[in-house]
Amino acid sequence: MQTSAPGKDADLAISLPNGRVKCTACARYCEIPEGKIGLCGVRGVVNNKLRLFVYGRVMAGHVDPIEKKPVTHYMPASDIYSLATTGCNWLCAYCQNYDISQRRKVEGVEMTPQQVAEAAAGQGAQGIAYTYNEPSIFIEFARDCGVEAHKRGIFNIFVSNGYDTPESVKTMGEFLDCITVDFKGSGKQEFVRRYIGIPNADPIYQTLQEIKSKTKIHVEITDLIVPQVGDDLDSARKLCKFVYEELGPETPIHFLRFHPDYKMMEFDSTPIQTLEKHHAIAKETGLQYAYLGNVPGHPLEHTYCPECNKVAVGRYGFSITSWNLDAQNRCKDCGHPIPIIGTVRKARKTRFQFIS
Ligand code: SF4
Ligand SMILES: [Zn+2]
After folding, report:
1. Which residues have C-beta atoms less than 6 Å from ligand 1?
2. Based on the structure, what is the number of domains in the chain?
3. 2 in any annotated domain
4. Whose CA is nearest to atom 6 of ligand 1?
5. Choosing a second label site near 240 at 20 to 30 A (CA), which of 117, 189, 208, 322?
6. Is 1 among the domain residues?
7. Half-sphere exposure (CA, 13 Å, Cβ side) for 155?
8. Which region holds residue 193: left if phi is over 0, alpha if psi is between -120 and 50, else beta?
9. Which one of the ligands is nearest to 87 CA?
10. Could you list the residue range(s) of the whole structural domain that residue 48 is in?
11. Count of CB atoms situated within 10 Å of the CB of 194
12. How far apart are CA 175 and CA 216, in angstroms?
């Protein structure tokens, strides 16, 4: 039966015997009756089929540095076309993008996957990031854009909360090159329940194991450290131990400074010393590439060679300020291989400046 509902029928869905449709795009696994929508607000049941209402509706579409995602070990200094839709499967009280993520309306510019890839290419981007809201909720649209992007030599990145499923990871494996998975408050249960609206962080850990074991996607981890309520060091230890044991000691991990926003305006920004304590835990655990984020000018923004401890890649905010690697991305001082995929793009004059 034809439908006049916006969007396109979704693939990640299972029809249930009770007449509902179960969405398998994220770990909420909403079981949705006819005429209703899931928690994210963009997937609902129409004529007994799950429909992605925001397929082809783009809320954001502009170019960012890849380091802003943050991604530091994949295609450094690339320009990234960032794309979002409305909706989200999380309800973060601190969301900086709440204006689009917490909108439960179908809005945005109409664009086909081909037009998205053309727009990215036309703006000189080397990659597309599906970001600002959780991309798993619009994964069928992201996949179709990603396939078009690959045809044009453009790579694909998810900036994801990791609250995904084996089904969505399988789809990611078809088109995704890189993912940065955002923990918040190190995944501490009390924090994620109260400030995000999920029971626990277990699905995020499962998603990472699934990505690692079944795909070749490059993975980076971020952790937003929120003062007083999301800065627990034991939770950070648990997260770092997991990353070390399950993903490997070379996995980059970024501890991000919180800034007050949305419903958490009464909180202060994260003290620098708190971030430094988290960084120290990562290093004690054996993680070789730990970073602080949202603290421009801090020495722990740099990439250090784990062998000789010299600055391998100098950074300031989202800019690269020095590149002390040879053509094979080995440390120029000691020859240690630094696991960065791709070499720095020197063409980007506006944001890339060598100081050495
Ligand atoms: S993507 Fe949306 S509809 Fe699907 S399970 Fe998650 S919140 Fe529910
Ligand atoms: Zn070195």
Report:
1. 23, 25-26, 28-30, 38-40, 43, 89, 137
2. 3
3. no
4. 26
5. 322
6. no
7. 17
8. alpha
9. 1
10. 8-52
11. 13
12. 10
Instruction: List the residue whose alpha carbon is closest to atom 5 of ligand 1.
Output: 29
One digit per residue, the tens of pLDDT, for the chain of length 356 reads 456 778 999 999 999 999 999 999 999 999 999 999 999 999 999 999 999 999 999 987 789 999 999 999 999 999 999 999 988 887 776 667 767 766 777 778 899 999 999 999 999 999 999 998 999 999 999 999 999 999 999 999 999 999 999 999 999 999 999 999 999 998 899 988 888 888 999 999 999 999 999 999 999 999 999 998 888 999 999 999 999 999 999 999 999 998 876 666 677 889 999 999 999 999 999 999 999 999 999 999 999 999 999 999 999 999 999 999 999 999 999 999 999 999 887 545 444 433 32
What is the C-alpha separation between 336 and 30, in angstroms, rounded? 48
First to last CA, the chain: 64
From the CA of 36, the nearest ligand is 1
- Nearest CA, atom 4, ligand 1: 23
Residue whose CA is at the smallest distance from ligand 1 atom 2: 40
Q: Which ligand is nearest to the CA of 21?
A: 1
Q: Is 289 found in the same domain as 345? A: no
Residue 148 CA to residue 192 CA, distance in Å, equals 35
172 with 270, same domain: the answer is yes
Ligand 1 pocket, mutate which of 31, 89, 101 (most atoms under 8 A from CB)? 89
22 CA: nearest ligand 1 atom = 5
Is the same domain home to 311 and 188? no
Atom in ligand 1 nearest the alpha carbon of residue 26: 6
